Structures are given as structure tokens and as C-alpha cells.
Amino acid sequence: MKRIHKTVLSVLFALLFVTPSFGGTMNVGFAVDLTSIDASGTETLNGNSTSSSKSHSHDTAIPSLFIERESDSGVRVGLDYIPVEGAMGSQSRADTDYTTGDGASVTRKAKADLTNHITLYTEIPLRSSNFFVRAGVVSVTISTDENLDSTGSTYPDDDVMGYNIGLGHMRDIGTNGFLKITLNHVNYGDIELTSSSSNKITADADRTGLQFSFGKKF
């Protein structure tokens, strides 16, 4: 179902770009988001229902590419794509392995990355100023890499939908160039994973940062 959501987003975006009545210009460029990622989650072990919770925060710079259509009134509708993996968090801990029955001590390691990150957004100018508000929907794959117990249990990847809101300022640079500076917040949807040994993880993540977008109008 979530892959269907991605397809729907792509179709809507394509339809917009071939609609002549939208008018205006085509804008393309790249962006760098200086952001702080915050993630928290709870893992519940199968067999004894023991649970543990962790949280993780780190600062990073996230590059992206964007293409957008700008109307004559200054409204922009665009697609932002992150071409690299972004680390959401990693943790390790020592545990008692209840799956073997002998209470052996094991080290559980887990890492999650954000991949295939796509944002479909609209930016609306505030009155006649260069300031604008931004709202969008986000589609991303949570890619996991883990060594959780002596059975070799693994968690599957998960496709997640989220939302994007922001407040920014746009200024022209040279001939047809522009710079946008946006206070950007992304909230990812609920993350629920079940491992091959029926352990369960529930998590949530969001990020807030300052995004610098450089582009050109055609």
C-alpha cells in the first residue's frame, strides 16, 4: 500500500508538470539541509515480552535535488529527492538471549537509514513579500541493518509516509538564479517492525533544520 502511495505522488506530480494552465517557470536546483535528526523507539522481545526504549539525536548535512513549477502568482509545487542514504540512528547493547533457553549473554546491534527519500511540496508566498510557507508529504524507506540475537534475527525494511512544513525566504541571484533559506521540519509516520523471530519495534523520528536551496528558473 505504501508503494502505491509513492506511485500516486509521482503521477500527481507528473500531471501538474504537463498542465499548461499552471504557467510560470520551471525551477531546478540543489539544496543542503543542516538538520538535527531525533529518533526514539521501543523493542519488545518475543518469548518474555521484555521491552527496552532508546532515543538518539545527531546533527548532519543532507543534500538533495529538486525540480519545481512556479506559477505567475509565485506559488511553487515541487519534488525534492535525497540521492544518498541518511543515518537515522544506531545502537548496541548487551542482553540475555531468551530464545536459546540457556540465558546466554549476547550483544544486539541495530542501525537504521533513511533511503528513497522523496518530498512533494508546495510553497505559497506571504502576501507580496519574499517570505513563503511550505507544506508537503514525504515518502521514505527505513532501511535496517542489524545483528539482534544468536538466531540471526533480522528486521525488514519499511516504507513510511510523513509530512513537511516550513517557513522560508527567497531572493533572486544574478540572471534567473535564486536562493531559498527555509526553516524546515519533517515528521515521519509511525514505524512498526516485526523481526524474523517475532521481536517488535515501534519508533518515531523527525528532523528540524535550516535548508539552503540554490536554483535557476527556465
Indicate the structural class.
mainly beta
Helix proportion of residues, in percent?
Answer: under 10%
CATH topology, which one? Answer: Porin
Please trace the helix and strand order, writing H or E for each element: HEEEEEEEEEE
- Uncertain ranges: none
Number of strands: 10
The CATH architecture classification is: Beta Barrel
- Class, according to the CATH hierarchy? Mainly Beta
What percent strand?
Answer: over 45%
What's the N-to-C terminus distance?
Answer: 36 Å
Q: How many structurally independent domains?
A: 1
Radius of gyration using CA atoms only = 21 Å
| Continuous helix count | 1
How would you sum up the major sheet?
8 strands, antiparallel, barrel
**Overall pLDDT metric:** 81
Q: Could you say which overall geometry the principal axes of the C-alpha atoms support?
A: elongated
Spatial arrangement of strands, main beta sheet: 1-2-3-5-6-7-8-10
Q: Mind explaining what this structure looks like?
A:
The protein has 218 residues and is mainly beta. The protein has a single domain (2-217), classed as Porin (Beta Barrel). The protein is built from 1 helix and 10 strands; from the N terminus they run αββββββββββ. The chain has an 8-stranded antiparallel barrel. Strand 9 and strand 10 form a beta hairpin. It is elongated, with a radius of gyration of 21 Å. It starts with a helix and ends with a strand.
